[in-house]
Amino acid sequence: NMKKYITILALVIVGTILYAILSKQKSENKLYTGTYHDPVAPELRLERDKYLNRINNLIIDRNFEEATLLCDTLERLCPQSPICFLTGGIISHKLKDSMQSRLRLIRAKEIYDSLIIEHNDHRDMKNNLVIIRALYGRDAAEAAFKRYLNRGLKELDSLILKNYKSYVYTTENPLDLIYD
Question: How far apart, in whole angstroms, are the C-alpha atoms of residue 104 and residue 128?
Answer without folding.
Answer: 13
